[in-house]
Description:
The complex is a heterodimer.
Chain A (H helix, E strand, L loop, with lengths): L1 H41 L2 E6 L2 E6 L3 H9 L3 H30 L6 H14 L2 H15 L2 H7 L2 H9 L1 H12 L1 H5 L3 H12 L3 H9 L4 H29 L5 H11 L5 H26 L11
Antiparallel strand pairs in A: 1-2
Helix pairs in contact in A: 3-10, 3-12, 4-10, 6-8, 7-8, 10-12, 12-14, 13-14
Chain B lengths: L6 H32 L3 H5 L13 H10 L1 H32 L5 H13 L3 H18 L8 H8 L6 H14 L2 H9 L4 H12 L1 H17 L2 H6 L7 H6 L1 H12 L7 H31 L7
Amino acid sequence: MKKRHSFSLRKRQNRVGYLFMTPWIAGFLLFTLFPFAATIALSFMEVSSTIRGYEIRPVGLDNYVTAFFRNTEFVPALGEFLMMIVPYTFMVVVVSFIVAYLLNHITRGRALFRTIYFLPVIIMSGPVMWQLLDSQTVIHGMALPDDFDSLFLLSILRSYSPAFANLLSGVFRQLSTILWFTGIPVVLFINGLQKINPSMYEAARIDSANEWQMLWKITMPQIRPVALISTIFTIAQLSTYNISSVYNLIRTATANTSQGLGFAATYAWIYSLLVLLLMGLAFLIFRQPRAKEVSLP
Amino acid sequence: MRRKPAWGRIAGKTVIYAVLIVISFVYLEPVFRIISKTFMSAPDVIDPAVQWLPRTFSTDNLKVASRVLNLETSLVNSLWFSSLLAACQTLVSALTGYALSRFEFRFKRFWFMMILMVFIVPLPVLMVPRLMMFITFQDLTKIKMIGTALPQVAMALLGQGVYSTVLILIFYNFFNMIPGVLDEAAMIDGAGPLQVFYHVVVRLSRVTVLVVFLFSFVWNWNETYVTGTLVAGTIQLLPGKLALFDQQFESLVSSSGSAFRINEAYKMAATFISILPLIGLYLLVQRQFIQGIENTGITGE
Lengths: 297, 301
């Protein structure tokens, strides 16, 4: 009797659960899973739109050959994207951790600072970013690199590796634009910091650890999962803003239906694979290290 | 009982505040730049001596920018467009969050993983087939899809709108905080699952519903990639007009035949106009916004 009851309850739970999940699952299959698979398939096809609809013809690796060897824009754009996203993500995650860490140490004015740091989340959009970056390069385009060149450290760097120095001054120049991506990571980090068990700090303090040691020995290891989420979030955000040139390349390829959507699919697939690889890399970096075996005396 | 503040402590606090204030300025610098350029008169813009404060205050830029943006139409369009999508997204996120929070169905963990995975799939990889699907559908049924809000409404209603994952997680975590006995009590009184969902759960989470709606509103407002591909400028929306500002400006000027030249101030004024509604909204409900992100609970799992 009892067994039957629990069985029917489980069945009911299952049924009603799926009832509420249906819209999402349907959308997932139709608008996410299917397009994802289709893009991979389309990257090996040539798609031409006719009056009777789409005509799809397999062309093998032709699209890839075109993307990598015939087209002279794509590979440099990918390189440029990598040169942008790696330092930017690093900056965003580090800065948002520092900001959150500092905010966690003060009580007065915390809400105000948080409001300021969160503002970009609300107003940031592709066109706004574009206008801001555009105006920055127009106004300061000539003046700023020299400004940073006068920094002693940077001029030393430039004599060793001009590429790295350029990268660094690029990061400096767009500092506030980069910082705009820290809005949500800051909130996540603050939340994560507050969830760290305070008795750990107390125990460390009793063993006369200082703030610096506690930061490295307690806070950093504890915050690792949040750092992972923030990194993945930042990569996801940065890769969908039109500040990267690959992104614009894909956009024009998608809009340009005459050239063939198969080609756009190839671009999109290579680009997305790269983004997913970067996320995978972040996952490996922040992965929880295997717990060391501690032998109790 | 508080310890007496030692000098080292005070110095430490001062350094922290100083650093935070400096960072705040770096954050706000673009906003200040937008505002200051917006109100500059034409001579001020080219004058290198004028840095932040305009010498002569002028609203000319705003007038020009709002004409180029076609403000009345695009503002109204942006408002209903974002609200419509936000309403759809809020509804479906609530349903999904409720399912995850209350029911033990088969493969629940799998679906939860999929919801998280959707977040990291880069959008460009989905857009080409989506576009083809909508065009094919349009050709088959003769219902106009491309250039209308329909494709995005369909996607939002089926849970694949902007940052759906985050919205679902906000609901999921909030529903987890509502005690399940309330549902059970209603069910004993003969309420069906949908009635429980609406009369008990949704009514208890009005604030959450509002927060999710506002987030969705803001994100849909700012979203330009999917909108740009599917609506393709047919519905005039503020961010879309901002993206095309330079071209629109040129065409407007050449048609009127005057000797206007585009400058930074016009562009900044246009940017100002397009973020102004959002800033207003943020000032009203900023606390709820921040708490909304905190309540996603993605830091806890």
